[in-house]
Amino acid sequence: MSSIGMVLNIATTALNAQQYGTGVTAHNIANVNTEGYSRQNLILEAIQPLGANGLIFGRGVETDQVTRSSDRFIENRLMQEKSSMSSSLEMEKYMQVLEGFFNENSGTSISAMLSDFWNGWQDISNNPSGVPERISLYERSLLISEQFNALESDLIQMERDLTNAVSAGINNINQITREIAEVNQQIIRMETTNTVANDLRDKRNALISELNEYLDVKAFEQSNGSLNIVTAKGCTLVQGSTSYDLEMGGVNGDRIRWQNSSGSYVDITNYISNGKLGGWLDMRDEIVAKYKLDLDALAKEFIWSVNRQHSQGVGLTGFTSTTGSYQATDTGAALNSTGLSFADKIVDGGFRLWLYDSNGNYDSDTILTIDADVTSIDDIVTAINAIDSTKISAAIVDGKVQISSVNGYEFAFSDDTCNVLASLGINTFFFGSSAGNMRVNDTIGLNKNLIAAAQIGGDGTIASGDNTNALAVTDLQYTSMNISQWTCDRINGNTQRSIISTIEDYYHSMVGSIGITSASVSRDRSFYELMVNEITNIRDSISAVSLDEEMTNLIKYQHAYTAAARLIRVSDEMLNTLLGLK
Amino acid sequence: MRVANKSIFDAVKYNLGNISEELNKASEVASTGKRINNLSDDPVGLTQTLNIRSTLSNMEQMGRNINFGRSWLTASESALTQVENVISDLKALCVQMASGTTGSAQRLSAAGTVQNMLDEIVSLANADVSGNYIFSGLKTDVAPFSQDGTYNGDNNAFSIKISKNTTAEIGSDGQAVFGDIFNTLSNLKTALETNDVSGIRDSINKLDGHFDDISARISDVGSKIARLDIKDKIYQDLDFANTERLSKIEDADIVKAIMNLEAAELAYKAALASSSKVMSLTLMDYL
């Protein structure tokens, strides 16, 4: 049975409900700019009606629940795309720096320096006895060595920067997983009372999204409302209210490790494929690693080819003393297993050692025969000492061969068919065997007359106008060589294959390949950016707040509130009328 | 589709970001005049430009080598031409001295002239280009001929590189060039001193031989110079062609660059205008 009291009751529920509605609207408006916020809706329901005398009387309105407008599927897609975008965004940043290292428009172009280097040899071939030409070649060689060194150290520095970035990223990840574990706990507690923890879920979503920007993770919701998070190789980062930290480790402290319950470590470095971490690791272990190896391979072949030709020649004078630049670990072992940097290049053959008296006149010559897998460095030293101890002697100092002449005698070399001189670093032009340690041989730095432009004539003469060897060195510019080219892959490891190319072409295609990589990383970035943008649009059309909509809702609730209030006034008037009857 | 406020602002940010990136690229191209400013702008084009630059640098060096070679060959040509003149003078002198009307006193005095000419030929044969002797084979630091005509050089020829796989001989083995010319002259001198007419006649024949040899050498040198000139011309043409190719690859078409810049600017302005309109719209203004 209906009564005025009941109308008053209904009006009260209406007032409450509309007020609640205004509250939800206010909450939505307040969070219009909150990242990851899902707009909330008030679900109103009519109260179970009352039946009396065959009639049904409504009893007003009640608030059923406040729901979140959110689509799990879209949220997950968005997180995945964001993860990929962060990865390519980071790679793009570092690629731009890497491009800068190899920028050919700057004054530090290896390509131009290589041209200068070969031209320096051409100038010497035009005027083999000229001192200025020799000094100029020396300076150019210094420049190119220093540029190789600088590039190598730039690349190493970039690797360090990336490792530091990864390390800082790990700290952030640990922080985020701890927070997720905490929020999990709060959600479990709150949702036991049959309510949905809307805002906490939004907060957790935002945290997972942030986590996804660092690395690729998978989240699994449990029946109690908590979320378990698993990353690469199935390593759990969050389980209920517990989080598990990642840490840096390994020999160089540059690997990412996860500790399992039994305390042993799992190295997940190579399995993180997305997020900033994925980008940094791709950059460090695939891109920078490749170009560092390629640069080394190039420097190594460059050093070797110049040294090998140089060791065939002779300068304006012979040597009075020289020390090899490569160190052997075992001077008693056969030459090709001595631990010399270029031991693998030694083949069977021999070389000729010439002696000149104090007037520079030919004295004698000796052929030393080498069997690559029999003869040892000790054997060579013994053979030299057997020539004539009043003229020449040899010794091993610090794993390096040292040859000295006495009584004003000088010595020189020719016809090395076994590459042993270049491998020992005797009569060579460059020192070192990689981009990092390459420099001009000190012997040449001290005496530019030892730059070997000539080759010793059949009768032992050293002619100052002989440019035979200088011409042979300039020919290297056009000679195709076998140079290793690397492919670095975090999962499949690093592999090399040999390509046939001139020094210059190799470098040019290396620079071109950096450009191509960079362009493709940029394309990836803009693709993922577009994807994120599109999916964000979809996500926002479901979840984000529209102020216009909220304003409409506000007015809707306001009108309903006014009407409910009017109900009370009308009921009041009705009661007054009733009471006034007396 | 439902459009949230955030979507509107996000779209404005995203679109303005994209357009300003394009604007920035267009302005970079227009202001540097270069189409390739970063390796990634056109990696293939960049590799080509690197190859062309190396080629250009190499050709420039070849040009220097050729000029250097030319200086040696011209010095050679001029020394040999003078030697040829001296031999021709000597021949005339011999003909005169071989004549029956010439007396021993005249012959004796002619012997002095021959000695002077011998000295001159030695000095011509010791010609050098900035301190390097051109007729002493590879021993360019040693004067090829002693006063008595002994050869001190070696039997190789000094060569330079004039292209990737060719060299050109620009110095010579003096012994081969001058043969026993010094012997002939000193024999002639002795014949004059000893009034040996048949000896003088012998010398005429020999001098004829030397004249022909030297002439042949001169035309040889001449043809080498011509070869270098042709090479040089080829390099100049190639240099021009390569420089043009380089410019085509790396230089921006300035008209196109400016058009692109204007287009990007226009798009940017349009985006700014529409953004400001959309962003300021709200229902609240009408309530």
- CATH fold name of the largest domain in chain B, please? f41 fragment of flagellin, N-terminal domain
Oligomer: heterodimer
How much β-strand is present in the residues of chain A?
15-25%
Q: List the strand order in the largest sheet of chain A.
A: 5-6-7-8
Radius of gyration of chain A: 40 Å
Question: How can the largest sheet of chain A be summarized?
Answer: 4 strands, antiparallel
The secondary-structure class of chain B comes to mainly alpha
Fraction in helix of chain B: over 70%
Number of helices of chain A: 12
CATH architecture of the largest domain in chain B: Up-down Bundle
Which H/E pattern describes the elements of chain B? HHHEEEEHHHH
Q: What does this 3D model show about the protein?
A:
- The complex is a heterodimer of chains A (582) and B (287).
- Chain A is of the alpha+beta class.
- Among the domains of chain A are: 102 residues, no CATH class; 124 residues, no CATH class.
- Helix content of chain A is 50%, strand content 19%.
- Chain A contains 12 helices and 21 strands.
- In chain A, strand 18 and strand 19 form a beta hairpin.
- The longest helix of chain A is centred in the N-terminal third of the chain and has 61 residues.
- Chain B has 287 residues and is mainly α.
- Chain B has 2 domains: 64 residues; 174 residues, Up-down Bundle (f41 fragment of flagellin, N-terminal domain), CATH 1.20.1330.10.
- In chain B, 71% of the residues lie in helices and 5% in strands.
- Chain B contains 7 helices and 4 strands, in the order H-H-H-E-E-E-E-H-H-H-H.
- In chain B, the strands form 2 sheets. Chain B has a two-stranded antiparallel ribbon. Chain B has a two-stranded antiparallel sheet with strand order 3-4.
- In chain B, helix 1 runs antiparallel to helix 7, helix 2 packs antiparallel against helix 6 and helix 5 runs antiparallel to helix 6.
- The longest helix of chain B is centred in the first third of the chain and has 56 residues.
- The radius of gyration of chain B is 38 Å and the shape is rod-shaped.
- Chain B starts with a helix and ends in a 7-residue tail after the last helix.
- The model of chain B has no long low-confidence stretch (mean pLDDT 91).
- At the A-B interface, helix 2, helix 3, helix 11 and helix 12 of A face helix 1, helix 2, strand 2 and strand 3 of B.
